[in-house]
Amino acid sequence: MRLISFLFLLSVLSSNIFAFHDNDSLLLIENNYYQKKDSLLNIKLAIYNLDDRIEISGKDFHYKIQPNFTLKTKFYFSYRFLSIAFAFAPGFLPWNGDNELKGKTKSFSLNMNIISKHWVQDIQYNYLRGYYLANTSDYAPPEWEEGTDPYIQFPDMREHAFRGATSYKFNSNFSLKAIRTHTEVQTKSEGSFMPSIIYSYYRSNNESNEESQRSSQKTDNFEIFAALWYMHTFVINKKLYFSVGAAPALGYGVTKLNTRIESDHTINYYHQGVIRINEQIGLGYNTARFFTGMVIIASQATENQGENPIVQNNILTTFQIFVGYRFDAPKFIKKAFNKIGNNLPVKK
């Protein structure tokens, strides 16, 4: 709550400080439904919590494995049709400690998306190293005390993930940039269906250099989904909006599992159907230059590994607060994007 109060105060102060920039001449009207601001360089800072965990269940076990961080910081740079963002989990943020109890987690992510009038392309890379067993109490001795004794830790467990999505937005009057990159502002309430193909490859590996480790596992995973988003932005007044979206998704995944015991390797392949539900809600405030808001994103995926009785649930919940400002773009950026835009269909 202290962090939320601080960011809210920052938002109010920033809004007043930059109020003199709130000039309608900065709003280039594209049509009656949204206003373009993509001639300005958009910089956004977001702080968000991340509940990213894996739950694996079988006949006689149930594991809850997750990284040790609560808050992440993300920086966005958006101009014209392109947006780039990178995120990490700094240790100085509140609630990102407890390394002695839960181990240390290293995290980094890089995102890029390209948004045109109808087509949307997203690309993402994530790296995580260091996990712990959140339900250690189910497997620890009776004398184990939560908050006092260390959790079971997997310091060398790591994941590299590459994800992408290609989407098509049917309604050109609905501005996806208004809620993602904030390079546009929705001026009339609109919504749109947006079918998407989502694809990902990720590798998990818990191999360690510790001499005591006799066995380890590495998995290579490929998944592909078909999702149907519906998103809608409700314009409350000239500066305030509320957005909501949801998407069911059906997919198929292939997993290559390499189990290593001493010098022996056993390789198995699993094929599984995947069901995923995605939800998103947001609230935002705009002036001509300054903007702020919040967004909640949730995703739940269930995987059944064919005839294998093991069920894996991947659960992701994010609550994000952001503040941003639109600057005049430097001339070299304008020239570079003009050259690119003149040769690409995304220039609109």
Distance between the termini: 41 Å
Which runs of at least 5 residues are low in confidence (pLDDT < 50)?
1-29
- Work out the strand percent: over 45%
The average pLDDT score comes to 81
Shape: globular
- Strand tally: 16
Give the biggest beta sheet. Answer: 13 strands, antiparallel
Q: Count of DSSP helices? A: 4
CATH architecture: Beta Barrel
The figure for the number of domains is: 1
Provide the structure class: mainly beta
CATH class: Mainly Beta
CATH topology: Lipocalin
Write the H/E string, N to C: HEEEEEEHEEEHEEEEEEEH
Which terms would index this structure?
Lipocalin; 348 residues; 13-stranded antiparallel sheet; mainly beta; disordered N terminus; 3-stranded antiparallel sheet
